């Protein structure tokens, strides 16, 4: 882990330049990034201008750059600025924010949903991460791979004191995602939760929040090469699925024959989904998070009889909302949610995506802006 010392606002926060540095997708559909000067925008009514100091780089940014997600309504625009794990300082308030709790100099984050409508069914349920009219940062709106970005004062995430900006950035996406999933599984202290993909980018944070944050007993499942990071992050038990003939039997053995209270499926693997319900005890919940690529495959072991007689639940969870983000950053501040990361420069972004494509990134890369 690389330490950063940039928790204080830049000295020149009030001097807002006419243009600033941004990394743009100059040829969406291919791995290509251009670092250019763009006009620094004026915050509109209810908006704040954020002087970003850090941005995490997420695999979803890669997918947006490559136009890999057919579910998005239109191809990524040429010249779009990507990024959705931004941390920085409020540099200017737009009109109408005289009585807003957000002030110039506050440290805030911009996450996957940069703005939401507050009126659709998802928003009314407090599930603003899947707002029907939400603006995905770095796809609909210029994202966080730049020095200045806009966000609604009511929707930027306050970053707690005592948490490093670079460490906070990945929490805004990966951390929020696993915390929201653990909430849907309703995991409480002393309960067993299985984390599938325990050593991955999401999984190791889930191990930390579940064990150190919630006091749960974590059974991590992953490739043996990921054991160290899973255990170090908080997995009490670890199952190497490549060396274990009957993973479900192993989960039963570890849970006194009863099964786990919850399972988080963080891997994008249909095989993992096929096993997940078989790990559950009576009344347990399996939460779907990783999205398998290719053909749509039903969850193999989700037969009605199995669900009925054990009263199991299977649900999905997409990123997380504003409350999830605030709670996740509090876990991070207290050291329960931690992520491995290294820092890089904005100019290195193309190489970071190349490393991502080649599977060479451990944990996260955080850009210093
Ligand atoms: Zn992300
Ligand atoms: Zn909405």
From TrEMBL:
<protein>
    <recommendedName>
        <fullName>Enoyl reductase (ER) domain-containing protein</fullName>
    </recommendedName>
</protein>
<keyword id="KW-0479">Metal-binding</keyword>
<dbReference type="InterPro" id="IPR020843">
    <property type="entry name" value="ER"/>
</dbReference>
<feature type="domain" description="Enoyl reductase (ER)">
    <location>
        <begin position="29"/>
        <end position="367"/>
    </location>
</feature>
<dbReference type="InterPro" id="IPR011032">
    <property type="entry name" value="GroES-like_sf"/>
</dbReference>
<dbReference type="GO" id="GO:0004022">
    <property type="term" value="F:alcohol dehydrogenase (NAD+) activity"/>
</dbReference>
<dbReference type="InterPro" id="IPR013154">
    <property type="entry name" value="ADH-like_N"/>
</dbReference>
<dbReference type="GO" id="GO:0046872">
    <property type="term" value="F:metal ion binding"/>
</dbReference>
<keyword id="KW-0560">Oxidoreductase</keyword>
<keyword id="KW-0520">NAD</keyword>
<comment type="similarity">
    <text>Belongs to the zinc-containing alcohol dehydrogenase family.</text>
</comment>
<dbReference type="InterPro" id="IPR013149">
    <property type="entry name" value="ADH-like_C"/>
</dbReference>
<keyword id="KW-0862">Zinc</keyword>
<dbReference type="Pfam" id="PF08240">
    <property type="entry name" value="ADH_N"/>
</dbReference>
<dbReference type="InterPro" id="IPR036291">
    <property type="entry name" value="NAD(P)-bd_dom_sf"/>
</dbReference>
<dbReference type="GO" id="GO:0005737">
    <property type="term" value="C:cytoplasm"/>
</dbReference>
<dbReference type="Pfam" id="PF00107">
    <property type="entry name" value="ADH_zinc_N"/>
</dbReference>
